[in-house]
Write a structure and sequence with these properties.
single chain, alpha/beta, nine-stranded mixed beta sheet, elongated
């Protein structure tokens, strides 16, 4: 029986019970909207074992890299949206996966890229990306380019999609709901314009974890995409996507040094193990580079925040006063809740799975790279 104390540090720990609870919370939220399908985004999890829980029976999923598309297609998840603007160079591999039985849809917001998709001899289907306020990828729902791309893609056009990443700026449930409604209206308007131009639009896809959970209406939408909800993190807890106790992924670390005169400890989880994402800096509470928990994943040390992150060192202190160094000798195990779980998990090739205790009940591989 392997326990957390047997693992090298740092290691990535995933709590199965919390994961299952988070998955059910999102599934239940989507079930409130008849006819709407949940298409989980696997960009954070990158694991077939997680997909078996989040998208059972090889249901539809979203991916963000060709490595993910290939990995999940080989695992039986054929219905995918590759939700990053596609380049012509990538079309050959996607078409080859589709020729072997997958149904991977690509996205674009560029007329010339649409021409490349339309001209490709292999099996390809596309969605047009719509911008509803994030100002990242996508065209306006009212843009002339929307109809131009529709004309270019022709029968290869199967839908429209959008991502309200700016929902992360919301600081109340009402604000999230308002952003979700703007998102819904924008993507539905794009679908309506394309249908009026004679295109068969079967997919109207929106999503982010906050808008999927808090959207009051999904009228006109066929599916929602979300991903970080499965694992959670400090930032998502700060903006109300979930509670602090719903963070399923933590980094197992060890105390490597103490500074009694300052009441500070050093741990062996630094910038590479935690990432340097500072998303909570813009949230109501700034958690630095992560919140240090005890070996059981409990907040026994109060606001023990990783204030500084070097390559392999994390410096932990608390504004509440000196840390209890008598409970934190060199070698003591701790766990760190991450700011942004997507970025933190990217440093690891596997999850060490626990289920509310310290026994490692499984090891799940991740697919990294591009």
């Amino acid at each position: 029986m392997t326990k957390l104390s047997d693992l090298p540090t740092p290691s990535l720990v995933l709590d199965l019970g919390i994961l299952k609870r988070n998955i059910e919370t999102m599934a239940s939220a989507v079930r409130k909207h008849p006819g709407v399908v949940l298409r989980p985004h696997m960009k954070t999890a990158k694991s077939i074992a997680v997909a078996e829980l989040a998208a059972p029976d090889h249901g539809p999923i979203t991916v963000s890299t060709l490595a993910e598309a290939r990995y999940f297609a080989e695992g039986g998840w054929g219905d995918q949206i590759y939700a990053v603007g596609v380049t012509p160079k990538k079309l050959d591999e996607i078409a080859a996966l589709n020729a072997r039985g997958a149904s991977i849809k690509v996205i674009t917001d560029d007329v010339e890229a649409a021409r490349a998709i339309a001209a490709h001899p292999g099996p390809l289907w596309a969605l047009i990306e719509v911008d509803v306020g994030e100002a990242r990828g996508g065209v306006s729902p009212e843009s002339p380019a929307l109809l131009e791309m529709g004309k270019v893609l022709g029968e290869r056009l199967v839908g429209v999609m959008t991502h309200a990443g700016h929902s992360y700026t919301g600081r109340s449930l009402d604000a999230m709901a308002e952003i979700a409604e703007t998102e819904r209206k924008g993507v539905v308007r794009a679908a309506e314009r394309l249908r009026a131009a004679g295109h068969a639009i079967s997919i109207v896809s929106m999503g982010s974890s906050p808008t999927a959970l808090h959207g009051r209406s999904m009228e006109g939408v066929t599916e929602v995409r979300a991903g970080v909800y499965m694992f959670g993190d400090l930032f998502q807890a700060e903006i109300g996507t979930h509670e602090m106790g719903d963070i399923a992924v933590t980094v197992l670390s060890a105390v490597i040094g103490r500074k009694p005169e300052q009441g500070v400890v050093l741990i062996d989880a630094g910038a590479l193990a935690l990432s340097k994402d500072r998303s909570t800096q813009a949230a109501p509470k700034d958690y630095g580079f992560g919140l240090m928990l005890d070996a059981d994943g409990k907040p026994s040390f109060g606001d023990a925040i990783v204030q500084r992150a070097y390559q392999e060192h994390g410096v932990v202190s608390s504004a509440e006063g000196p840390l209890p160094l008598e409970k934190l000798p060199v070698g003591a195990l701790v766990r760190v809740a991450p700011n942004h779980t997507c970025m933190t998990a990217a440093a690891y090739d596997r999850y060490h799975v626990v289920d509310g205790g310290d026994e490692v009940v499984a090891v799940w591989r991740r697919v990294n790279g591009w």
